[in-house]
């Protein structure tokens, strides 16, 4: 196995924050993945499955981080008015979006603009502009923690708002998506969506997207703004001036600064508005004392 040791993790996250992983493995196929999991169990070390790192902020990981690579190129299973495609868990979501725009497929292009993998998007049930990835899922193949490949169809997966049973149930290895051709040219709407994102979100900065989930019927960004937290800074991390729910790494930020900023924001928002915000970003660090677990 090609494990790397003491690997800095900041470069594997879109916000650019990370300590080191004791062990790091790039899984290029299912065999790599199985071996990585077996190793972490045999060593009684915790394990983190990493996609595009666009919702993840690392501290030090005293276990193993497995980075999911693209196992195979996008495959078209059926063509017609409705297309079925198969992609691997480590496939960048933007490949699917690019395909959808070229083929004039409806709705999924609204998920453009974040550097996710398909597996990470499924795990988070990523969504934007009234679309969630679960809408397009027909079937998910995953490797469970006993090392068995399993297939489940969408009805068997309890998707919620930015929530799914993954990675707790296992590692997403393949996804079958069902996509419909649009009656109208999608390029125009795609350009509008891209433009809206550029204008309203700091997408060219080091960020992990939304810090907090939207409470039911409210917007986390609005609550943060009304609590005076737009632009609020702790050390080298701050909430964006453009969108209060986006944290920005101003250079050299650490996970402890992130925790401080998050805790302050939660306290202030609770005090001023009564809402208790819940993190959408995943803060991953592990002191290594609790044995094997999925982080
Ligand atoms: C500029 C920007 C804009 C964003 N806008 C949005 C938005 O509009 N909507 C939205 O929903 N999100 C948004 N995000 C957040 C983020 O892109 C999504 O949460 C995305 O789905 C994370 O995918 P990832 O591959 O980067 O996951 P990672 O950050 O690598 O991991 C996230 C979680 O998924 C798990 N995971 C990753 N791969 C797998 C796998 N193969 N099998 C099982 N579990 C896995 C990880 O263990 C972790 O728990 C944005 C982020 C940025 C940087």
Provide a compact summary of the structure:
The chain is α+β, with helices and mostly antiparallel strands and 295 residues long. Helices cover 24% and strands 27% of the residues.
What is the strand and helix layout of this fold?
Layout: E1 4-8, E2 20-27, H1 30-42, E3 47-50, E4 56-68, E5 75-78, E6 82-88, H2 93-102, H3 118-124, E7 127-128, E8 131-132, E9 137-143, E10 149-153, E11 171-180, H4 186-200, H5 220-226, E12 233-234, E13 237-239, E14 247-249, H6 255-273, E15 282-286
Residues 14, 48-56, 68, 89, 114, 116-117, 119-121, 123-124, 126-128, 162, 166-167, 171-172, 203, 207-209, 282 line the site of flavin-adenine dinucleotide.
CATH architecture of the largest domain: 2-Layer Sandwich
Low-confidence stretches: none
Number of helices: 6
Report the oligomer.
Answer: single chain
Question: How many strands?
Answer: 15
What does this structure look like?
It contains 6 helices and 15 strands. It has 3 domains: 4-70, Uridine Diphospho-n-acetylenolpyruvylglucosamine Reductase, domain 2, CATH 3.30.43.10; 75-186, Uridine Diphospho-n-acetylenolpyruvylglucosamine Reductase, domain 3; 210-279, UDP-N-acetylenolpyruvoylglucosamine reductase, C-terminal domain (Uridine Diphospho-n-acetylenolpyruvylglucosamine Reductase, domain 1, Alpha-Beta Complex), CATH 3.90.78. The protein is globular and about 50 Å long. It has helices at residues 30-42, 93-102, 118-124, 186-200, 220-226, 255-273; strands spanning 4-8, 20-27, 47-50, 56-68, 75-78, 82-88, 127-128, 131-132, 137-143, 149-153, 171-180, 233-234, 237-239, 247-249, 282-286. Strands 1, 2, 3, 4 and 15 form a 5-stranded mixed beta sheet that branches. It has a 5-stranded antiparallel beta sheet with strand order 5-6-11-9-10, covered by helices on one side. Strands 12-13-14 form a 3-stranded antiparallel beta sheet. Helices cover 24% and strands 27% of the residues. A hairpin with a 5-residue loop joins strand 9 (137-143) and strand 10. With 295 residues, the protein is α+β, with helices and mostly antiparallel strands. The model has no long low-confidence stretch (mean pLDDT 96). It binds flavin-adenine dinucleotide. Flavin-adenine dinucleotide is lined by residues 14, 48-56, 68, 89, 114, 116-117, 119-121, 123-124, 126-128, 162, 166-167, 171-172, 203, 207-209, 282. Flavin-adenine dinucleotide binds at residues 14, 48-56, 68, 89, 114, 116-117, 119-121, 123-124, 126-128, 162, 166-167, 171-172, 203, 207-209, 282.
